[in-house]
């Protein structure tokens, strides 16, 4: 043993303290970001789970049962373990187009579930606006629904997480609907989270829901906030944006990604370090323009775990890597989530379990190359049947938007279909409207299916009406007017027809502005009630032959 003089011991202690302090100041700060997007109220595991590349044979894909709030909560807790600093965030569409258990209660159960999981920050998506800004504000602040009042098992407290809406401006005030960003500090390093939805939100939500709001350019919004954040000492910036891309690879890959997010990331200020995206329902982990860009797919089947190293001196991001982790249903169920869902199930169960009828085979919402789907055909037929009598509207044809059809109606067991199954396929609960349209207006409305040439929206049409279209023709000339027939007779451009659509389309939703000109409207039942009645009257239902829409080229 070496005996050192007291002065030497003191000096050594000071040196060790100084070295420790210096190391503490220079050691990177570790932050784990957990992220989801496009949850859409899937509190239970979605049918079909998640399709991934078969690890044993890369040429094949397999289906992995995944999702559900009970399993996600368990995974989120596991991913937090061993990490001093974590934050749970989302990139929009947490609610809207939801299954029955959430939709019946205006998505209150989903807000409560994610709050219980410890979600802290969420960008608004387009579906957050499905019921308008006042309802979205209620999601944040709590309280009873203004029309349906308090339907749930307990008063709705509102979200404990914070919505962000950097690009959504209330026209009357000129202010954003929610704060544009939130700054969180980890071991002295501030990190800013900017949240925003896509500029085109007004074009894909009901015009009534968009009233009074302005959805500004995403890139310009983000770049304008950078100087403000830097003035507050922020160098590490994470963007939560409800816009995305289309990759070609598996859920943790990024080959050949395309879509709006690519150009956006390239135009973001270089101060932006990480982009967490959504909207396209695709899963990916990408490096775009030297920046990490992620998406966790859809319906709560994945949680993205992003490990970030922060420099305590520069306060900037040193590195970031991500992993999309599957929310496997083999995970244990979180007891708090189970209790919450059971409480809502007790109220919803008697309604949800009502028998609608049966299916002979699964009715798929996936369109063929012409844009026609089996479930779309059935829904259009149901809407025509509900409005065909003179007293109900006198309709001779029906058309519905494909974006309103959210899930397949699957054949399970003996083929029984419940009200919950019907509701899940059409969760927006739109009211049917029958109105007068001339043959020329029907043709013009069909041409508007290509208003966005990159994302055609092919309307689903009822039996008896048919037409052909040519993808090589210019906008306004896709539909062959001579091919348009109703019950075998040519559509007369000058004749007036009674046509059933939903109230979303009647207001010009999805860009179908021609339909706003329809006259003599008569309102009918809700779309999912029409489908329920169709099942009751026509079961077992088999997929119709796809012969209504023909693609020429």
Describe this structure in words.
The protein is an alpha/beta fold. The protein folds into two domains: 26-336, 4-Layer Sandwich (Purple Acid Phosphatase, chain A, domain 2), CATH 3.60.21; 355-551, 5'-Nucleotidase, C-terminal domain (5'-nucleotidase,  domain 2). Helices cover 27% and strands 26% of the residues. A hairpin with a 2-residue loop joins strand 24 (485-486) and strand 25 (489-490). Helix 4 packs antiparallel against helix 10 (335-352) and helix 12 packs across helix 15. It is globular. The chain starts with 5 loop residues before the first helix and ends with a strand.
Short summary:
With 553 residues, the chain is of the alpha/beta class.
User: pLDDT average, as an integer?
Assistant: 94
Rg measurement, Å: 26 Å
Determine the CATH topology of the largest domain. Purple Acid Phosphatase, chain A, domain 2
Main pleated-sheet profile = 6 strands, mixed
Number of helices in the DSSP assignment: 15
Give the CATH H-level superfamily of the largest domain: Metallo-dependent phosphatases
Portion of residues in helices? 25-40%
Number of domains as seen in the coordinates = 2
For the secondary structure, the number of strands is 28
Strand residues, percent: 25-35%
* Spatial sequence of strands, sheet with the most strands: 6-5-4-1-16-17
**Secondary structure category:** alpha/beta
- Poorly predicted regions are 8-12, 18-23
CATH class of the largest domain, anyone? Alpha Beta
The rounded distance between the terminal residues' Cα atoms is 91 Å
**Global geometry:** globular
CATH architecture of the largest domain: 4-Layer Sandwich
